[in-house]
């Protein structure tokens, strides 16, 4: 503005020859333009620069430069924690709302430095660990920078260690946060609660309804389903490089490595050592080390010096006793060493106990049983010990090893409470990767024999062999348990025959026309399938008798989670070529059944269409082959079970055909099928097929017994 | 001058145009809300001096002056370590003493006693007991006086199956309280036990089986059933408008079937409000196989200490019912399938009878006492459930026949032959040779159950042969002998005749079905209309439901289960009639697996070994002893566990028209 004024004063000198009238006009015009320009410039840049003083991401800053907030001595203090808080009473779930990703949104308040009236800081501005924790949250999927969309608020006020802060003033600082609202939906992280002399087991800072992720909760302070019990982070996790040591017998059976123990406990431990000798090792702080040695990395027994935490790897069980606080950082070190923690701290809520099954990784011994601890541990079989060692190490890797792991596990627990539909299962939390990899959770695990009255739906895949199709329909319709027949018409160039031409059968017959001639159409989960049992049958399988089909359905009822089929096949390992080979000869074993005639649960149609791993589905459609092998792989992989081949081998197609089963047995076919097996095995990353030596026959098959008294006499006749 | 004017006009135009152009940006900026700017997401800053920040923890953190151990538990609060004395349970095992009712026992107390008496926990001596059980279901609803051995409630379990009137005033002290759907604030986790809310007419034993008949929901099934005030259920389709925010769902105009008075809902999900009286609906949903969706329950879920309810139910927030409904509609079929099956498993295993509820309560307490040797949660949460998976057998799931799939393990590849020599008193030399010929045979155990002393010399076999003395009882063979070193047992009688080939094939089949019995000769059970009872016969040959243990493979765990889980009354019952021990073993395995046994072919026509047959007749002849046996066992189990099968597993090429040389088990085909 100043500039424009100056300009207008100089104006006349610059343009001397102009007429006054025009000159005035001209000058006015230019002033207006200039004024406008300047105003625009100011408008555009000024507010932005004001806003960006809050925006740190643009440049890197120092912690010392954060804004200072002065807390008046009489500013409000939150209520003490409400012990009756539960998610549905103290948590405002409306802030979280429906979310397609099922992820809560977490906001972090910007960092401030709080001082009291006289300018004395309330606490250290932020510790290294809390900075790490907030960075981890900020880098995670949970983070949002929009306070209005946030479901959970994390203050930047560091309360990890109660000893580093002033309780009343910290509480005042919390209360003046912009969305505090009695602490609703606020999450505080605290690892070292309480202070001398009585060491409370939860953070003493009044926090009203705020959730507390605390290390060292006891049953008296822990609000189950509301608070989250977290580990006390061990500094050694990052500082010391400790290569993993596998499970197995170790030099010491029981070891105690804690330094500051109550004399009573130390006495008890001493008694244990005296009683059991070499196998028990009780360590203490070293008294006569030279100054330059890191004393917290050494432990001593009499005059023997041990490296800590390396010594933990020498023991099978490690005592984790309560100290001044219930939560001890040594738990983390012990787990890391694959030493099974023996937790002796009555009423202690173990870290993440809401989701972690500590029985699998630790032994909890009541304090009054401490004298017995050796005998209790001795009763554990070696196999269980090794599993527990593995489990302990896995817990450390997944949930203890870094501040980030601790922060994310905490948020995941809260997330699962808010979106229970997408919650992580017990197995996902607790099973180590090796178990997850080897185990199978059968989707049809309930032992249940479906009632016969339900019947089955036959699905015939056809292209243009109408005559043969009609024969199949007529044959299948004789089966008593058939409840519906579905013809999948896979020919887009030709319409199915008129309705009047179809065979008249006693059950509903429905024709589905497909959009594309794809083999996977056979396994589509059509809405028309109302029964659980599906019979997939080719339009040329005309030789199966009604007895055979009915018997096949009965077998499926006993094995509803398996593929129950007629023609059986085998996969073999070709040692010369070092790859899998397809086998259709007369063998004593079977590992697949062809879906040209097979019963299975309709759920597998859903799996085939929507959950087939990798590109197998498209690959099958492109090659027009091996959809049956793919189905065998899929079912075996998800159930971990073998197929059931029913009834003896026979010619399933036209009896006149010379080749066995009528399938082309030429070399290229076999090579292609072998290729399929190799391709699928590589996509699944394993060979899921199971080989068995049995097939299912009716109880009296070929027994010396009057045929007319047999339930299924017409079986296996060629 | 005109040019001046024109020029200035042009200038003015240009200037205003420029002005407009520049002005529009700030206006645009104002119009768009301050969303996240692209390229610069604002996160937690990376501090320049992050490395210089101080740590929260000092390496030698624990203060030197550690405080004294904690004081004794504060007023009224108890936890397991502080308030239960396990030393009493170590010596004599887990024994439970039930206080007799003060007045005339109520019906519920009758049920409790009926359930406990004859069970392996029951004791009549209060001094021997590790746990004292006090039932508060008094007929008048009044609290009786405290029992003499009360001792401030230490090692006491106060059982309240139904809400009683004296609940408020009862001084629980250090006693554990097991009550139906307790409210969250009074409940002491890990100490008290949350029971399911049982209807008055809940059966003592057996109980109604789950109503689920198929694994996946029927396409026509309603998505939601809503618990109504009056005790009924109302079905609702996928239309979520039926449920406004209050959680009370109104009837929408559409045609939706209502089932007034229908006891069980017929839907995939059941929405249940969180108030305590509605807890009863929870059990109904479980029985119906309808996945319970609990809207902020104010009560503890039953047995939540051991049951992983996230596998069978969904706890949603009552404030967001629409979100719940939307999430249910979106739920992938795989999860629905798993939840649905789990509801049925839990109902059938832990909730369908008073007996199961009480045994589950006691097993939970026993697991607490066992501590390290308690069952892993896997055993509680997958079939057949903890009541049938005894922790005394092993704590490793892979030692049981049920969990191989979940653990990615396999049963060991060898078996032990257990040959019982009974009345004949002749060493079965031929049988021993045939069995020892199998490559899978690890050892042969001869159970000498005859008055004559066993011969001193036995044939030379490739595998170790051990002779054990029996007690000449039929159920001797089902004792959990320490000598058995393999998972699989081939149980044999001296008179059985088997070939090596048959043994090999049957063992191969057993490895595929380690939880079932695999046998050669079979019986089937039937309901005898004329007599109004169960019977069994060897004559109904098209199907079967039992295999004879005179030649059968099964898992050695069933010996432990037979000896330690069955009530003594049932076991002594099995001694009374010939063949009854066999029937009992089949009952037990069928109750655990809910599946039929497996029959494999035997080459020779088996010697008739069944319930004694009336000569000539094909139909089942009246056999009082046999029928009594199966009838009484069925009564003891509370239901008929046997399941029939119509199939036999044969070798793949069995009697196929192909060269015998190709066949692995050719000797099975000899007529």
From TrEMBL, chain A:
Its EC number is 2.4.1.224. GO terms for biological process: heparan sulfate proteoglycan biosynthetic process. The lineage of its organism: Eukaryota, Metazoa, Chordata, Craniata, Vertebrata. Glycosyltransferase forming with EXT1 the heterodimeric heparan sulfate polymerase which catalyzes the elongation of the heparan sulfate glycan backbone. Glycan backbone extension consists in the alternating transfer of (1->4)-beta-D-GlcA and (1->4)-alpha-D-GlcNAc residues from their respective UDP-sugar donors. Its cofactor is Mn(2+). Part of the heparan sulfate polymerase, a dimeric complex composed of EXT1 and EXT2. Could also form homooligomeric complexes. Interacts with NDST1. Interacts with GALNT5. Keywords: Disulfide bond, Endoplasmic reticulum, Glycoprotein, Glycosyltransferase, Golgi apparatus, Manganese, Membrane, Metal-binding, Signal-anchor, Transferase, Transmembrane, Transmembrane helix. This is Exostosin-2. It is a single-pass type II membrane protein. Gene3D superfamilies: Spore Coat Polysaccharide Biosynthesis Protein SpsA, Chain A. It comes from Pipistrellus kuhlii.
From TrEMBL, chain B:
Its EC number is 2.4.1.224. Belongs to the glycosyltransferase 47 family. Glycosyltransferase required for the biosynthesis of heparan-sulfate (HS). Transfers N-acetyl-alpha-D-glucosamine to the nascent HS chain (GlcNAcT-II activity). Appears to lack GlcNAcT I and GlcAT-II activities. This is Exostosin-like 1. The lineage of its organism: Eukaryota, Metazoa, Chordata, Craniata, Vertebrata. Its main location: endoplasmic reticulum. It is found in: Endoplasmic reticulum membrane. Pathway: Protein modification; protein glycosylation. GO terms for cellular component: endoplasmic reticulum membrane. The keyword tRNA processing does not apply. Keywords: Disulfide bond, Endoplasmic reticulum, Glycoprotein, Glycosyltransferase, Membrane, Signal-anchor, Transferase, Transmembrane, Transmembrane helix. Residues 415-654 form the Glycosyl transferase domain. Residues 107-330 form the Exostosin GT47 domain. Residues 56-77, 603-624 are annotated as: Disordered.
